[in-house]
Amino acid sequence: MNIPSSVRRLTGAVAAPFRPQRLRPQAGFLATGVLLHGAALLLWVWFLLALFSVPAAALVPLVLALGSVVPRTWLQRHRFRAYARADIPPVTAVAGRYDLVRAWRRMRSGAYWRQFAYHQLAGLLLGVAEAVALLLWVGGAAALLNYVWSWPLPLHWSVTWWLWEWGWLLMFGGLGLLFAAPRLADSLIRAEVPVALRLLGPSRAEELEQRVDDLTERRAETLAAADAERRRIERDLHDGAQQRLVSLAVNLGLARATLTDLPPDARRVIDEAHSEAKAAIEELNQLVRGLHPAVLEDRGLDAALSGIAARAPFPVQLRVDLAERPAPAVEAVAYFVVSEALANVTKHAHAERAEVSVVRRGGILRVTVTDDGVGGADPHAGSGLRGLRRRVASVDGTFGIDSPAGGPTVITVELPCVL
Amino acid sequence: MRAVIAEDSVLLRIGVVKVLQTAGFDVVAEVDDGESLLKAVEEHRPDLAVVDVRMPPGFTDEGVRAALTISRQWPDTSVLLLSQYVEERYAADLLATRTGGVGYLLKQRVADVEEFIEALHRVAAGGTALDPQVVAQLLVRGGPDPLHRLTPRERDVLALMAEGRSNAGIAAELVVSESAVAKHINNLFAKLDLPQADADHRRVLAVLRYLEQGQS
Questions:
Q1: What is the pTM of this model?
Q2: What is residue B215's predicted lDDT score, i.e. its pLDDT?
Q3: Smallest Cα–Cα separation from A64: which of A50, A54, A76?
Q4: What pLDDT was estimated at residue B104?
Q5: Which residues of chain B have pLDDT under 70?
Q6: How do A364-371 and A409-416 pair as beta strands?
Q7: Residue B105 and which of A43, A101, B119, B192 are 20 to 30 A apart at CA?
Q8: Contact indicator for A278, B108 with CB cutoff of 8 Å
Q9: Element (H or E) spanning A320, and its range?
């Protein structure tokens, strides 16, 4: 059968409220709302009655109202999720043990008072509205079925004659109410969800704060994962390829040293293979050092940096002052900064000497690389400095470079020690 | 001369054993971790122990710790540490426990078989063999001021001296005469304000002591 869409929309709109799968959440939402908000009303009545008779006794409902904010919020959150399909995000919990201090700190948060306002103030209005909507249903059903329930009533009850005479009118009225009730329930739900979200959930600022916290944590995890991966690759190369190459070079070296009676051609081939193997080891070493040097993991920044400083083709004075080791990812960044900065100095600065200082002051790791070269380094020109800046930014560090033409160049990097 | 070797990489161990045999050593034990090394040294009392720094179970500095124990308990056994990277404080730790019979080289130096064999003999005979990279790191640490007064050639001589080379070795390396080397050494001893010492390894120690003082 082909029903025009306008007709289908119309019949759908009429029938929609009566679909059983809509009825249950609506009724559930209203009933639980009446119960929960009714409790708030009771607390008010109790409080006011006590206040005007035995004022001291008013403390009891007050404490109950204040103390039940968290469980009532919990219940409301479940109610909205179950019947209104609305997720109220939780407010960040106050950390600490469950004691009076924690309770006090929680009471000082804005979220707590927003939730209290929802339960004890907005709850009054919402509860009344929900009760009305619920009554619409009950009243509508009662009016529609008036012939059914008025039939067994004794005739001499004064109302029943009226019901018999005008009952058909009531039936129509009841039918109307039953049409209206689901719509009212729906609009109530739609109206209440934003209120609940605003008052029970975190505020915009708190949400952003939470998001920043989440992102910070996730970034720290990503960094740690990348760092761990670099270390894994380093270890694999170390224990695998590098050892094999060394062993190969040793065997070639042995051949060179012991097979003295070889024809000159064979000797030359062995010599070449030997130098090739040694060059490959050196290249692999460079690669591994760029990834994540083992000495950094085993012995920390001081040891790893003295290795870089020793390999620089000019004298480097190194000062490392660390009471305790920073987070591994931060160590890796600091190592990278010094390594890359010295590589830049080697390539571009024509420096005679350089100074590297790594100092930890409180939560900040300050890395300074100074050279006496020609200066004029442009942080936006080379990929080296840009890479440095990016690497530093990845852990929320600050990067500064001072390089007037003619030198000297000073690179200052500050990193947070804990991510 | 008898030697033991502690190295967990089988390939490299085979290679080093071959080099040791070529150098005329009798390899009496091959082990792959620090504890077995100590047992082997106690049992065989070898002249030389060749030890990998990174070994099971922790893969950090097991070899260094075993070497320190050997230095304390069996001073007649010389120790040559092999490492993937060099860390000058390992060398400083070792040199603090004994006056000679110590070596600390990068693993890849084994490939230069002739030089490695020379280092093996030097260490087994109570001398020293420090990796040029260790010496370079020590020079970085030393603080520039007194070293600044050295000429580049004197710095080269100091570095080779710190590695444990003899005057003849230094002369060959730098392609100068032995008497020139002796003159450089006298000059730099004077500049660094060091007393003349007789044995070769004493020179190394003197240099290292000086460099350590420069740190503090």
A1: 0.65
A2: 46
A3: A50
A4: 92
A5: 140-148, 193-216
A6: antiparallel
A7: B192
A8: yes
A9: strand A316-321
- For chain B, give the secondary structure using H, E and C: CEEEEECCCHHHHHHHHHHHHHCCCEEEEEECCHHHHHHHHHHHCCCEEEEECCCCCCCCCHHHHHHHHHHHHCCCCEEEEEECCCCHHHHHHHHHHCCCCEEEEEHHHHHCHHHHHHHHHHHHCCCEEECHHHHHHHHHHCCHHHHHCCCHHHHHHHHHHHHCCCHHHHHHHHCCCHHHHHHHHHHHHHHHCCCCCCCHHHHHHHHHHHHHHHHC
Phi-psi region of A203 (alpha: psi -120 to 50; beta: other; left: phi over 0): beta
Give exposure, A308-338, as e/b (b: 16+ Cβ within 10 Å). Answer: bbbbbebbbbbebebeeebbbbbbbbbbbbb
Q: Do B15 and A353 touch (CB under 8 A)?
A: no
Chain A residues whose beta carbon lies within 8 Å of the beta carbon of residue B216: none
Half-sphere exposure for A52 (CA within 13 Å, toward CB) = 5
The answer for residues whose C-beta is within 8 angstroms of residue B121's C-beta and 6 or more apart is B23
Q: Are A120 and A65 in contact (CB under 8 A)?
A: yes
pLDDT in tens, A152-165: 766 666 666 666 67
Neighbours of A277 (CB within 10 A): 22
Q: What angle do CA B117, A236, A289 make, to 5 degrees?
A: 70
pLDDT surpasses 80 at A102: no
By percentage, how much of chain A surpasses pLDDT 70?
Answer: 90
**Number of Cα atoms under 13 Å in the Cβ half of residue A391:** 22
Question: What residues in chain A have their Cβ under 8 A from chain B's Cβ atoms?
Answer: 238-239, 242-244, 246-247, 249-254, 256-258, 274, 277-278, 281-282, 285, 293-295, 298-299, 303, 306-307, 309-311, 315-318, 353
User: Is the four-CA dihedral B124, B125, B131, B134 of positive or negative sign?
Assistant: positive
